[in-house]
Amino acid sequence: GAGVSQSPSNKVTEKGKDVELRCDPISGHTALYWYRQSLGQGLEFLIYFQGNSAPDKSGLPSDRFSAERTGGSVSTLTIQRTQQEDSAVYLCASSLGPYTDTQYFGPGTRLTVL
Amino acid sequence: KQEVTQIPAALSVPEGENLVLNCSFTDSAIYNLQWFRQDPGKGLTSLLLIQSSQREQTSGRLNASLDKSSGRSTLYIAASQPGDSATYLCAVSNFNKFYFGSGTKLNVKP
Description:
The complex is a heterodimer. Chain A is an all-beta fold. Chain A has strands at residues 5-7, 10-13, 19-24, 31-37, 43-50, 65-69, 75-79, 88-95, 104-105, 109-113. Chain A contains no helices and ten strands. The N and C termini of chain A lie far apart (34 Å). Chain B has no helices and eleven strands. The relative contact order of chain B is 0.34.
């Protein structure tokens, strides 16, 4: 594809529901990243995949958050039992390789938990 | 834990001025440093990527320098234009994690 795509672009959910956010990286990019940007806050790193593996999951805010990547391509970020503090824009990025390559960002998913 | 700080938080300049944005980080064991711009309601666009072994990178009117030992980077914008108005973010990577500063919001007045 031309760039990183994310779906949905907006998601409104009720407290306690589970949500799934999807990221389609640029074709051929082996590295994929998830970030969170809360209102008025900076970007918070959540998790990084090299291929289908995440070397370090300690950036995930709580055990309600999980992420997976399949086929070295699409990734999903799942938030279980959503809380109001989970409301944020969730950004995904991909790069050709890890560390040394430019990250290209998707437009984000705006999550609102009522 | 790595801490990334950007100064100033906001900057307003008249068109045509040269300006410098600053980024500092606490842990010098980084793999690279990247500068991004973020336009309101939009995603991030990468501007420059400096590897840990490099001292600077240039793209058009932009020049970014890196002094790893002192934990500092600067982004120099020459002959600023209203279209440069955005929030500029720096980010460093180390040990499978990535850390962003809180950004400098730049307004270039016509």
